[in-house]
Write a structure and sequence with these properties.
The complex is a heterodimer. By secondary structure, chain A is of the alpha+beta class. Chain A is 15% helix and 53% strand. Chain A is built from six helices and 22 strands. Chain A has helices spanning 2-16, 19-23, 50-53, 135-142, 146-161, 177-191; strands spanning 28-35, 40-46, 57-60, 68-70, 75-80, 85-91, 94-107, 110-115, 118-123, 129-131, 196-197, 206-222, 226-227, 230-231, 236-253, 257-278, 288-308, 315-340, 343-351, 357-370, 375-386, 405-418. In chain A, the strands form three sheets. In chain A, strands 1, 2, 3, 4, 5, 6, 7, 8, 9, 10 and 11 form an eleven-stranded antiparallel beta sheet that branches. In chain A, helix 4 runs antiparallel to helix 5 (146-161). The two termini of chain A are 38 Å apart. The relative contact order of chain A is 0.11. By secondary structure, chain B is mainly β. Chain B has no helices and 20 strands. Chain B has strands spanning 13-16, 21-23, 26-35, 41-49, 60-65, 71-77, 83-95, 98-101, 105-110, 116-121, 124-125, 130-136, 145-149, 152-153, 155-159, 163-167, 174-175, 177-181, 184-187, 192-194. The radius of gyration of chain B is 20 Å and the shape is elongated. Chain B starts with 12 loop residues before the first strand and ends with a strand. Classes of the chains: A alpha+beta, B mainly beta. The interface between A and B is medium-sized, with 22 and 22 residues.
Amino acid sequence: MLVKSLQLFLILVIVSLPISEILGQSDFREGYIITNTNDSIPVYLDYQPNASLHEKLRFKKALDASVEEYFPNDLIRFRFKNDKLFRSIRNEEVANGELVFIQVLVKGRLTFSKYNSAFLLEKEGDDNVYNLNNKEVEQSELKGLSRQKSTRQLGVINLLINDCDGQVITEYFRLTEKKVTEIVEKYNRCTGTRSITYLEDKPFIGIQYGLTLGATNNYLSVENLSSGNNNLEFSDFGYDLKPLYGLNLLLTLPRISDRYALNIDLLYTSSEFSAYGPVNSNPATTNVYNYLEFSLNSLKVPIAIRYILPERAIGAYINVGPVLYTHLKYDWNTITERRVGSDIITTQVSEEGLRPIEVGVWAGLGITKSITNKVGAFVEIRAERSNSFLSERILMGRNSGVGKQYRNHLNLVLGFQIK
Amino acid sequence: MPEEDFPEVEYSRVRTFESAEVQSESVTLRGEIKTIGNFAIDEFGFVWSETKGSTRINTDRVVVGNENKVQEFEARIDRGLKDNTKYYARAYLKSGNSWVFGQEIEFISNGSKDPIIKDFNPKSGAPSEVISISGENLSYNPLVLRVRFGTLNAVILSATDTLIRVSAPEGTSSTPINISVVNKSVTTNGVFTFQNP
């Protein structure tokens, strides 16, 4: 009962968290702003998704100070310490000429910036801002001329870098932040000018991996189970506490977002359930009982989108996603006990009717703590609900058609991750 | 059906493991006390017979213990088995008024050891006197036992693997006692002397 209550509580907590609140979490980090009067002021900047930072900046002069807001007309630029740099710009190629903050990714003779999903190039001595994702190209795409996009982008980039020997691009490439960054860095090196890449220390893809250990408490519920010739109405197979262990993998895109990651685990666990009841529908008069046992050895693969809450001394996160079970071994025994006088005689039959694949959804709340620069640890509580492992053909009840079945799982896991 | 609607049974549960390990002159059986019921376990072990479906009647058995706890157990049976013969066996337990038998397994035996007579008492007596014969490798199953005083069959009153109680037949002279367990027999060194009234 306690486990079921905890599972319900966890699911309700996660489901009831308004998305706006999640996305609106404040995360003030060290940085500086440069005002229109060219004053550089160290402050704490609210580390929001880029989409929010294009329009306005929230900051505090001290962590315990009140929050202030600045808009693009208030600042020349601002930067998070060892992290993202934004500057204000007004240009017809960007945001329909509105004054906005754009994120500067590479600064040099050729400067590469980003506004939402638009990639912007600027060259020293050229007042134009070249938007590689402009409307003209998008319209061409709608007409089915998608190749024009890359052809035009290729032309723009070549126009800007053709003054450096051997830098002209001749082959089609897919426009990505990583690719454009490489081209711009290479050009700046070629011209012998200073080039600064502001997110240089952050990889495009972050991979963390490690070991997971834990315990899982399963609850199996089945209605209208038909066992051989005996229709049974088992509903509650009770709880089963078993260990689980395996590998974890966390994929991040640090240059895109510090808040989201893809969590994939590969875990081994087992389960055993049993229940018994009278074959005769009148328990008071029956002399035959069926005792059912299910045993499973399983590989489970929980996959989740992880939302990482703003980090304090201990980081916290939420995982939500699907889970897949592959049952490597699955047995079902029906043990019948028949009373004859004072003798109780047992017969046992191995039955078929379990399916090897089980799917479900899960959510988890976890905390992380860095042990060293390269190693971190985590503890997480996870709630799952899956569609169980019995074939539908054995769930044909006597009275109400196909019976329902489900498994609830409450997992407590801890582990280590190498960053 | 809510959980509370399932009546709990009062008896303990026992299982027979599938694999019987047959050796020369013995077989090892394994079982498990799965759950404990309302009454203490008086004894547990294995029963076996040549007849399929047998339980308490006309079976031989070995008592392994009487601990009242969930546990696995095993027994090496080296008596009462013919060579190259199919046997049916079950784990069992006795608890309160109930005898609980696990599922039946089968095995082909490779024979067993000879029976041994250690002693018998009294050494003399009148016909119908109860004689106790102690030994080893005897049998609980009266169907595979035969006790003879010379050429006279004695009525078996009770039998275990170490003690057989018989009623002395209508004899008139001194004679050794012969015990046959399945197809093996043993004869006492001493003689029983009939005392006729």
